[in-house]
Amino acid sequence: MTDHNMKKLKTLGKRYARATAMAHTEALNLLAAELGFAHWKALTDASKEGWLPSDEDLAKTGEIVRQAGARTETAVSQGEFTCIDDPAPEEGELSSHKYRIGDHLGDVVVSGEGWDLRIPEAPYKAPIAEIDERHAESSPIKDPSFLAELLNIAKARRTRIRAKIAVDWPRRSTKANLDGVARHPLGGGEASTWYCHSCDAQISGPQVAENFWHCPNCGTHPLNIRAVPFDEENPGEPVPTLGTAQRENPEIRIVEPRLTLHLNEETVSLLIRCALLEDAASVNERLGAMRAEISLIDGEEVWITFDEMLWPENKEPTSALAVAKKLGLDVEQELSLFTEPFAWPDLGSMTSKTADFATTLIDAYEAHGVIKR
Question: Is residue 189 part of a domain?
């Protein structure tokens, strides 16, 4: 046996350090402990006296690295160290309730019958559970013990995603050096103090690296973390270091996930006005349809006020009445005198073509008035 296995073990130590964002020496000591040594120095001292890691030792260590999400066991056994793929969606069952877990844009998403649980990528932001209102009384998400177990499952998934990120990013992006300098994983550049352009907070290199480049104050994404403050004269206050920082408590929402038609005044007015335009036979009537005042009274009646100079007094808006009937609404109509948009209101009753109306209108203003642009 050669020292080839020893080189593989050292490489696994580097990969494990990156995947877990811990110090290299700490990762080596942890792997040495798994192989029965007090620390990495004890392991290297033993190697100088003839001890070398066996294939079984490498397989055991490789499994630890694989569980951290850094490499697959196959890659370890072949001595290949390529980037892992994003974890594929998985299905499971908890307390007889089936679920599916995956990720979307860095967030962990767990879905079951009538509920969804989203754990944000930002480490300390609150998980959000949404319950379909049709299952509001029977949803298991409302059981604190079920929700706690589900969060533990999601946490394990989150660890794998973070490990993937740590492997892809530069080492200095997940572990600041002794001077507190960290490197931005997306924009590059190194600094010991970083600035949030969302909340104007100052963030130290170790803080932002540990928080995977989300602001520990407001939770914004890495693209809002910059090496210079948004306002150099007012760079903001430093974010305090919290030794026991944890995720906020889950937020539970009752939602209606189905597409919903809200028959409020805005929607009803839009439909009625569209029908009035369908009823209009001339330019004047189209102008009347657009300028009509439409109100919804107590959710039961539509009140339409027409401009008497634009909408004929005896013209029934048949399409609008048909739409109102479909919506289960009564209709009341009245005429009123509005402020005219143009002079010579009779011009619009002579044609149904807006271009012809515009030509006649311009000619009339050129002959008898003023046109300002």
Answer: yes
